[in-house]
């Protein structure tokens, strides 16, 4: 019955038939001290994390029949730690959409409310974990593919720094198109404690020997327990400055405020942090991810039937660069600076010189961010902010104005910082009342972008009430242990 319910949510890809036999032969009579830290825990994995002799369609119809010839290294590490991989989950086509529905496994629906999306591209894992179909899952994240589904489905997740966990053997539809950000592998679970246990197991010397490219930094238990530093310096922000991307809805603002008040009550120093300009994040981020101007996207989807959520993006990538630039000006005039920035980024780099300049711009962006992090009063230990501007979007109702909200997740991918997503509270009736009252204010100000996003919530107000929301926490590279707080 549970399997049928999960299948109805569109999250299942393929069961690992040998999992039952592996579990039976796990060594149940072994002494506890000889068991791995993940001993006996069933684990599900996003389909792009291959398991030998199992499908790796990546959500693409053209890849039906593609079978993994070997386990990715993460699977080997999990088995060495005692875990039992038992299921693969479906994902957005080629991992390129905030909606993880695809034409192979069907429409993915949110586990908390079937009128809403689960997020993408690791939406299958978020559904499995939220519905208790899996204790522990693994997904991938380049620009928010793990964090957004976790937030939409009300579970916890961790995007580590790149090369903190092994990516050897991961399958991608892309052969070459991205300068940055690199794909990270991360765990997802209902409780933060299991994420901690997982990182303890995988960030260990025995695992580092299996992949010498992984940073050989063991999990710092003292840092997690707070014995190294009792009082943290915490930065926070609830929104970007200006009117480039939609304002967070009241429930999102309350999630950050709740985290801030809790940290202050526990004696930590909390102060406002000013994030970079979101249009810079969007233009630079989409350019480094699509340095070829969409040529690789066009190749992948050349003969691929498209889901509704993918059509506009793929059609735009297939346009000649000169037409893209013309459409960018039109989009910015009609829909605002965020969409204009995304359009310019998707034009890519026209030459090797342009690509080299982009690499230099990324370096400057990171250095400027680091200067903000290391203020006169000392560096921040962690930053609290929203995952996106809103809870899970209604099915088939995503506004074109919501695209700019990926700036929240893309920022910390560009600067390569670890990010934790933490479940906080549910959307309340008061949150909805405030959100609905904001519509009149936005319309009076002529703010079409925020009015459009607010109307999405108004049109589905009853379904939104009670929805779980999350906030995300970021700290400096490789020091993810601070996420206890």
From TrEMBL:
<protein>
    <recommendedName>
        <fullName>Amidase domain-containing protein</fullName>
    </recommendedName>
</protein>
<dbReference type="InterPro" id="IPR023631">
    <property type="entry name" value="Amidase_dom"/>
</dbReference>
<dbReference type="GO" id="GO:0009062">
    <property type="term" value="P:fatty acid catabolic process"/>
</dbReference>
<dbReference type="GO" id="GO:0004040">
    <property type="term" value="F:amidase activity"/>
</dbReference>
<dbReference type="InterPro" id="IPR052096">
    <property type="entry name" value="Endocannabinoid_amidase"/>
</dbReference>
<feature type="domain" description="Amidase">
    <location>
        <begin position="30"/>
        <end position="428"/>
    </location>
</feature>
<dbReference type="Pfam" id="PF01425">
    <property type="entry name" value="Amidase"/>
</dbReference>
<dbReference type="GO" id="GO:0017064">
    <property type="term" value="F:fatty acid amide hydrolase activity"/>
</dbReference>
<dbReference type="InterPro" id="IPR036928">
    <property type="entry name" value="AS_sf"/>
</dbReference>
